Amino acid sequence: MKRRNFLAGLSAVVAASCARIEKREARYDEKECPFCKDKKGVCSYCGGEKKCSFCEGTGKRKTVVPHVTEGNINKTSYTEECPYCKGKGTCHYCDGSGICWACSGHGEVEASWEFLRSRKKDKKS
């Protein structure tokens, strides 16, 4: 008896779940840019501010060397040129434009993702 009730209940659950799938909307838009989906067309790294997110636009960053127990060396710090923006202070992802690098500010990308391969080739040049 228990097995019959279990099988009947299981088949009802399966039938109900199959019916719900047809009513569901798509979970994502395949043309939506994944890098700027929160703010369409805006660089997600600098938030459209055009400043380097690692040095806050100063072109220099403070580097801290941790405490070393051997030899009683205390923590030291020094200032260096930001290795990401190379001292320019502009976002190196969008090249200081504030526009999303992947979709060029449109908010949509090609479904084939060829844009990423072409962008990587452009960056190497």
Q: What is the number of helical segments per DSSP (H or I, 4+ residues)?
A: 2
Radius of gyration: 26 Å
How much of the residues is beta strand, in percent?
Answer: 5-15%
- Low-confidence region ranges: none
**Main sheet properties:** 2 strands, antiparallel
Strands, total number: 2
Structural class: alpha+beta
Give the termini separation: 73 Å
CA-based shape: flat
What number is the mean pLDDT?
77
H/E element sequence: HEEH
Helix content: 25-40%
Walk across the major sheet and give the strand order.
1-2
Explain the overall architecture.
By secondary structure, this protein is α+β, with helices and mostly antiparallel strands. A two-stranded antiparallel ribbon has the order 1-2. The chain contains two helices and two strands; from the N terminus they run αββα. Helix content is about 25%, strand content about 10%.
Structural topology:
Layout: H1 2-23, E1 60-65, E2 76-81, H2 114-124
Antiparallel strand pairs: 1-2
